[in-house]
Amino acid sequence: METSILEITGTAVGILYLWLEYRASIYLWIAGIIMPAIYIFVYYNAGLYADFGINIYYLAVAVYGWCFWMWGQRKRKGGPVKTAETSDATNALPIIHTPRKYYLPLLAVFLIAFVGIGKILIEYTDSDVPWWDSFTTALSIVGMWMLARKHIEQWLAWILVDIVSCGLYIYKEIYFTSALYGIYAIVAIFGYMKWKELMASGQCSLNKA
């Protein structure tokens, strides 16, 4: 019963998180701290140990993401980017494409995490879905970092994670969370299109929901 209440609460916070992410609102990081704190318990009780571990990582990255979106301003040619939500003293953090120089390191991180986590799950846990669990965890590590850096391609990573996770959680009978990830998969597509619009219009940093 306790796990069900936590799962429902986590689902509600997750929907709020997704809406704020869709809006490119900096307040997504508040939900980004609360949600993994809840799911640490949900995933541990379900025996999804890699997902349990990734949520500890999410907590750390949420703090990093908050700080980077607040103070990691980038400058474009011609000066800093400014929007209606920012003062003259505060530069907006723009949404950008992932620089090409990051693709190889990100691929390496994914492959190392995927193989490493998979072997750990097989060797030291009773997980019956070690490679699927490892796949979503490894790709989430990459996707979360890309979100913290405000790279638009983070949506592509989440679309794949969400689709695989939806099926995985149905298999594990975590139905509320499965529904959440089904919604994630759909909204992630619209999120990608929304961020493209923000890039095109110059509204690169929505600090308010």
Could you characterize what this model shows?
There is one protein chain. The chain is built from seven helices and two strands. Mean pLDDT is 82; it is low at 75-91 and 205-209. Strands 1-2 form a two-stranded antiparallel sheet. A hairpin with a 2-residue loop joins strand 1 and strand 2 (79-80). It has a domain at 93-208. It has helices at residues 2-22, 28-46, 49-71, 103-124, 130-148, 154-171, 175-201, and strands spanning 75-76, 79-80. The longest helix has 27 residues, at 175-201. By secondary structure, the chain is mostly helical. It is globular and about 50 Å long. It is 71% helix and 2% strand.
Shape: globular
Total helical elements: 7
Q: List the strand order in the largest sheet.
A: 1-2
Write down the secondary-structure element order: HHHEEHHHH
Residue stretches low in confidence (pLDDT < 50, at least 5 long) are 75-91, 205-209
| Strand-residue proportion | under 5%
Task: Map the helices and strands.
Blueprint: H1 2-22, H2 28-46, H3 49-71, E1 75-76, E2 79-80, H4 103-124, H5 130-148, H6 154-171, H7 175-201
Antiparallel strand pairs: 1-2
Protein name: Nicotinamide riboside transporter PnuC
Keywords: Cell membrane, Membrane, Transmembrane, Transmembrane helix, Transport
Subcellular location: Cell membrane
